Amino acid sequence: MHRSSLIIATALFISVPVSSELWAQAATSGESPSAQSPVSDQEFFTKASSDGAGEVQMGQLAMQKASSPQTKALAQQLVKDHTAANKQLAALASRKHANVVLQPPPSDVMDKLQSLSGSDFDKAYASAMVGGHQKAITLFDAASHSSDPDVKAFASATLPTLKHHLEMAEALSTHPPMGTP
Fold first, then answer.
1. CB count in 10 Å sphere of residue 120
2. pTM for the full model?
């Protein structure tokens, strides 16, 4: 059976609790931890909606505060894509009688971003998007193993977009725009 490889998350606000024991089991079994212990559908709806709202909120901030056109373009793309995905997720959750989070909880990352400006903001935003999307990929990969075919389909269909966002954020993070120290 084909399993997409996981990108292991290192930091920031989108998280799926995964113990080191599960990673150790994964290392010995060859399976991803998400395949061994998928998140419940309600956990997925709650976490994905909360994190998606946070992505939109940070993207809107970046569209205002970013100093480089590349960072603003990334933020604009993320706001557009996450707004659409959030609407689809909310509609799916409604059909499943599940709850979603409409407003992101307070975040240390958001607080930090609000305090920065110029190239410092751009670097911190790109870094936050790398870490956030790594964790989102882990969450959506876990949900792609759901026993509910609709949840599985939504998560699987969203994964390529999240991976593309990660690539864009990594490119911005590792190759800052010209003129950025």
1. 15
2. 0.77
pLDDT, tens only, 33-89 = 444 446 899 999 999 999 999 999 999 999 999 999 999 999 999 999 999 999 999
Structural contact between residues 173 and 126, judged by C-beta atoms closer than 8 angstroms? yes
- Residue 176, pLDDT score: 72
Instruction: Give DSSP secondary structure letters for 100-147.
Output: --SSPPP-HHHHHHHH--HHHHHHHHHHHHHHHHHHHHHHHHHHTT-S
Structure token pair of residue 22: 């599960």
pLDDT for residue 127: 96
Q: CB 31: neighbour CB atoms within 10 A? A: 14
Find all residues with CB under 8 Å of 75, minimum gap 6, and list them: 58, 59, 60, 61, 62, 63, 66, 125
Cα 154 to chain centroid, rounded:
14
113/110 Cα distance (integer angstroms): 5
Confidence of residue 174 (pLDDT cuts 50, 70, 90): confident
Taking the CA atoms of 26, 32, 38 and 39 in sequence, report the sign of the dihedral they define. positive
Give the tokens for residue 160: 């390529």
